[in-house]
Amino acid sequence: MQVPRKILMGGGPTNVHPRILSAQSLPMLGYFQEPLLAIMDEIQDGLRYLMQTESRYICLLGASGHAGMEAGIANLLEPGEKIVIINQGVWGWKAAQMARRYRGDVVEVCKEPGVACTLEELEELLATHKPAVLFICQGESSTGTLNDLSGLGQACHQHNTLLLVDAVCSIAGSPLFTDAWDIDCLYAGAQKCLSAPPGATPFMMSERAIHKLQNRRQPVACYLFDMELNGRYWNWWQERSVHNTGLITNWYAMREALAIVADEGLAAVWQRHSDMHHMLWQGLGQLGLQPLVKDPAHRLPCVNAIQVPPGVDARAVIDYAMKTYSLEIATGLPPLNTAIWRIGLLGYNAAPHNVALVTTAFREALQEQGYA
Amino acid sequence: MQVPRKILMGGGPTNVHPRILSAQSLPMLGYFQEPLLAIMDEIQDGLRYLMQTESRYICLLGASGHAGMEAGIANLLEPGEKIVIINQGVWGWKAAQMARRYRGDVVEVCKEPGVACTLEELEELLATHKPAVLFICQGESSTGTLNDLSGLGQACHQHNTLLLVDAVCSIAGSPLFTDAWDIDCLYAGAQKCLSAPPGATPFMMSERAIHKLQNRRQPVACYLFDMELNGRYWNWWQERSVHNTGLITNWYAMREALAIVADEGLAAVWQRHSDMHHMLWQGLGQLGLQPLVKDPAHRLPCVNAIQVPPGVDARAVIDYAMKTYSLEIATGLPPLNTAIWRIGLLGYNAAPHNVALVTTAFREALQEQGYA
What we know:
In chain A, about 40% of the residues lie in helices and about 15% in strands. Chain A has twelve helices and 14 strands. In chain A, a hairpin with a 4-residue loop joins strand 6 and strand 7.
């Protein structure tokens, strides 16, 4: 098996922290043995700290971040109910696709790429549609856009709406306060700012979300991601039972990732992502490169969207970085494709030497194209 | 993180092969980088050998074995269509639960625990119900029962029925010939006879199954396991695109697991499981213990169900083995619970020294209870 070393500075996955690589190689445990249940308890404690919540309804889903989106929609929404989906890029678009599969009445609100939502416009949408669920990404990684979610949960609850938030990319990369912001369902990603391998998706529900789940008229259409059944494995109710085999080595990896966050301290982790973001833009700015997101307050620190200047071959820059430095720079995702590059400053990789390398690669690649 | 060493001889997961533990710690690759795509191609080749098929519609799902069941039902069955489900234990029961979520017209055929199906009775069910799909486990691990599937695919196709087979537990543990037996959809487990960690679920579809998928009237209800979308990542169609982030370290693990099978040779792997099964029953027979499955031809070699003799405390035997040898012996699953024990002889652990230890643990634990 040929696995060359790459420096992954695209939109994710990122390089895995060495402590996490070691942790996932610990011996296998049975899916219901005491030491594994203790690790699951510790994971829940770590997730509560990471998400800044005291909810007992917290767990890992055993699949990629998509599973969080699917579980959120499948459990919170009943067929025929209205869901307002903020589409600021690929993830919003996918959420709308999914919600239609679950036979929701989907109101898809498409924003211009790189433009964040204001609380006022979201309040207006809530008042107009009074949806059962509002979906929004804290960070939309396809465009590097960060939404300010403070006050949104309170606004939702005035209209009896549940707030479903995608934090796959932003978790640990930007401040997030689940309880203070009254978020009802939040999911995150392992392979972004947590520097773990994909496969363990942090997932959280509020009391309100659980109440909705327990009073559904129809069963959750997807069996694997039925949170009443998953919650039994994670001790949400009085008695523990297994729903499906946990992804045990991915659990180990997440247990270690959460310990690493706790060791550094969440505020310090947020600050480091912010510092590296500013260092990156200082370097790119000197090259004359511009961010897609105009408003500095709405730039996602951990995934940065860079406008490709007119006349520049975006793909040639990416190829130069990979050929010369084994350095991954990402393209945009549809429809932006080669209109932007994306640079991830994700967890373990959000470090000055990597930021400097990215700047160097851009400078050299642009020089090669004669860009002044 | 406290992860004591355990010898896992229950129904799975099993101890991970050291080569696989090493492989999953290889450096992370981007989800669309050439070296990862090459590994995915190699995995497909390995899976074709493992499953004895030439189908190009083969891949890994990024979740536990349950995902295979969910994907099989979600993709093959349309709402309102009839599915006959052979319930010989927990897995058949789960499949019926799932198929109802997907709004199938479910005919659940419950068999006595430990009794296999005959081709004649299955042919009769097909003729009576003419279902869109027939679901059956090759090996039902909750009761240690092995079904003979030869001829079943041909019988299904006479009634325009698709054959969906669960081989989570039996793959690599018992002979299986996907193409010769005309199976339309097969899924398997990583953490059983392949000795990999859970999280990479082998999944295969026949041309017939793909034809059904491509001519559905309604979209697949579950987005994550829509095989048209997953197939794009695994190069089933002309153009590759990513559906969701692959579980990359779990892919590495499966790549290595498949190499280990190929190194030993599939026939030798099957023979080793059979040999260890006979060695186990020789030892247990001398203690007066009896298998749940009466017919030797229908005993699953890799998961063995042992009747708990009258007056014996099943739980005390399990506790003795764990306390004395850190050895996991499993209980039955509902409704059998403490009516049986289950011994897994799974992949890397299917070795004489483990079989001898199991026999020793039973002898000592039974002696402690005064069982003659």
